[in-house]
Amino acid sequence: MEYAIKTENLVKKYGKNFTALDNVSIEVGKGDVVGYVGPNGAGKTTTIKILSKLIRSTSGHAYIDGVDVNKAPREAFYKVGALIEVPGIYDYLTPHEMLTYFGKVYRMGNDQIDRRIKETLELVELSAWEHKKIGAFSTGMLRRLVLTKAIFHEPEIVLLDEPVLGLDPAGIVEVRELIKRFHSGGMTIFLSSHLLGEVAEVCNRVIFLNKGRVIASDSIKNIESNMKYSVINVRFLEPLSDERLEALKSVQLINGVELEDNIARIQFDGELETSSRILRQLVSLDYEIVSYSLESMDLEDYYISIMNENKGAD
Fold first, then answer.
1. Residue 135 needs a FRET pair 20 to 30 A away by CA distance; which of 5, 154, 227, 246 works?
2. Angle, to 10 degrees, between the axis of helix 139-151 and the axis of helix 110-123?
3. In this structure, are residues 31 and 83 in contact, taking their beta carbons and an 8 Å threshold?
4. Which residues in the chain belong to E strands, given as ranges?
5. What are 87-124's pLDDT values in tens digits?
6. CA-to-CA distance for 298 and 31, rounded, in angstroms?
7. Is 228-296 a domain of CATH 3.30.70.980?
8. What are the structural domain ranges in the chain?
9. What SS3 state is found at 313?
10. What confidence category does residue 310 fall into, taking pLDDT thresholds of 50, 70 and 90?
């Protein structure tokens, strides 16, 4: 299989006492949209900066479309587009002026620059603002504009570091749709985020990072198919008395209960057999049950579970 992005035993140390990346090996297939997930300080931005050749790894290798970023940085530079953190923008420029400058940086011809200005501003729905000062733009408009910088030279691979950071819900939706458009245009996208709902919406694979180490990696489809159930939702015929609630909490195999009116959310170990045994116990204790349903884990639940497992391993 050909990989758009690949790292082998990537290590980045700062001084003698801090290791930002600890033997990170990842693979991103061509055409994938991969989420790179982890808490603040996990090493996500460090990885993307190494792939973008903004910093150098202490050891290990990083490849962009098969090109070693250390051995052939210029070739790798032209293959990738990146949005790293939120870049500063000169608000006295217009989008036309800003993109013309970046086109010159990438040694694009004037005709190509003019074509890409038209194409990219249309893609992010900023065509009407081509000759307006950037200082008048909203936060959402600015984020869409800086995304045009990442794709302006028509790279096949795009690196996005927290692309929705600081945006309101409407801005998040706009960026999400843009990422989907980039992907539909054939781009491979590698994005870091701590918003797991967004990762689930746009990515087909996810890599989990913690303390500079990869702790899990799989397709969203496989993760969802392997997720356990996390909660049993039980609706009772009548609201439970305090006495009946305490009796419910003491039922064997129940780990916790949240009650609102006549609906209980019961925590358990996620196994179907356990769910069946709990139901039998409730019936035997004469609880009058109207409905009994299982609630699946979401990506956030899965993330918390593997983080807890990783703590145990430490």
1. 154
2. 140
3. no
4. 3-14, 18-29, 33-37, 59-64, 67-68, 80-83, 157-161, 188-193, 205-210, 213-219, 229-236, 256-260, 263-267, 289-296
5. 667 889 999 999 999 999 999 999 999 999 999 999 99
6. 25
7. yes
8. 3-225, 228-296
9. helix
10. confident
